[in-house]
Specification:
The structure is a homotrimer. Chain A has helices at 17-28, 43-56, 69-76, 88-97, 102-114, 136-155, and strands spanning 6-11, 32-36, 60-64, 82-86, 120-125, 158-163, 166-171. By secondary structure, the first copy, chain A, is of the alpha/beta class. In chain A, helix 3 packs parallel to helix 5, helix 4 (88-97) packs across helix 6 (136-155) and helix 5 runs parallel beside helix 6. The interface between B and C is medium-sized, with 38 and 32 residues.
Chain lengths: 180, 180, 180
């Protein structure tokens, strides 16, 4: 087991990031737990959740937790099992919707991640690579998501970027250190 | 020649992805064919197409095909020539506009790509790395584009991501396999 | 010192690109100069600038220059100091706002970058990886930003892409050349 068995998988919408995260877990051969942060706000979301669950199959224990994922992760992780949290973007969305303290919740999660007792994979969206959104709420969500990804990325031992279904390992760095 | 001589080049708008794809083809020294999927919907598009064609120069055979690119690729590819398809994003746009069956067309294209008889480079946009679009049509386009990129990325032997004109090889992976 | 001591650091909003660029400069141990291109258009921007300055601390000489960064860079760079330009996206924004000739200004900057006398790090946003913006001005900004990143990326000896706070070296390429 790694010193820090946390992995952050980031990517765009429909980039294959969830599929790759599931592949990581399945390849480990460990019993697997899926922590779903999604709350079906509308029909589009409900359909998407049901589709994801069907695709995942039934070899997963599924726990739905929209807000207090730190407690669930603390309880569920261990050296002999693999946990998937899908996804931090919906978690952030829920924090905002229920007017939670994002900074405090992020700090709590990161402290936990630095001290994980077993493998845990976090899926999150990268949303800051488009044009500046016109409305303030979108800009503020984009900033919060970016900060969250930086913080979790720093806490996790591994960070993977996925595009067109293909993973790229950002951390730990495979290349020599970058200098001026 | 590779087992699968298909290459997917993805990137953002004005990232240099088309230029890099052309560089790949030109560097091969093979006779070259350009399959243009663009349909000039408006003046902005017409000007852009004309500009691209001027920049490309005349050492290319150009074929315009907005929809049935599979047939053209099947006919045009071969071991002694190099084919460029620019781009899948406009092709997808055309499929939607003409109300074609996207899943069926994608499947047909991917089956062909898995069995290419000669080098073929596909240019496509990554559009899922911004904030969630407000209108449903944009969200649905984003999802369709992401799925298409994943499917073609899986079918192709190579996937390259381009940013600021710089290519990054995502597939085949140069690093050891990523595990938990 | 490298043949070309220019470095372009690109990434999304809140990706950690500025922090990484500052880390590059600080790690060099050289005296440091910060060229700020930001013009506070509104309260949101004013607060962000003040926050950035507080976070940077006072070991930086700060020069504010919204438009003529080429002259400032020419004057400030040298083998015994490190210069940070943060960021090209706001510079581009200023060029547009004051109706300057973007192509001419970009060319002037790139000529200078090709012949830098000391290390200079440029921070810039990648904004082309979302869905096509609905308004023409945003599309045109996106195109201008993409072209600028390509041009500066070509002029600089190094290009780094940052996501979730993690850097990835795009240039110089660490892998064998990509071919068909």
């Amino acid at each position: 087991m790694l010193k820090n068995p946390g992995t952050l998988v980031i990517g765009g919408a429909r980039s294959g990031k969830s599929r790759f995260a599931e592949h990581l877990i399945v390849s480990s051969g460990l019993p697997r737990t899926y922590i779903a942060t999604s709350t079906p706000f509308d029909d589009e979301m409900t359909a998407r959740i049901a589709k994801h669950r069907r695709e995942r199959g039934r070899w997963w224990a599924t726990i739905e937790e929209p807000l207090d994922i730190a407690s669930v992760i603390f309880r569920e992780t261990g050296p002999e099992k693999a946990v998937l949290v899908d996804c931090l973007t919906l978690w952030l969305n829920n924090l905002i919707f229920y007017e939670k303290d994002i900074a405090a919740e992020t700090l709590r999660l990161c402290e936990l991640v630095k001290d994980l007792r077993g493998p845990c994979v976090f899926v999150s969206n990268e949303v800051g690579l488009g044009i500046v959104p016109e409305n303030r709420l979108s800009r503020s969500f984009r900033d919060a998501q970016g900060r969250l990804n930086q913080d979790i990325g720093e806490a996790c031992g591994k960070v993977v970027f996925v595009a067109a279904g293909q993973p790229m390992l950002l951390k730990p760095r495979q290349e020599p250190e970058i200098t001026l």
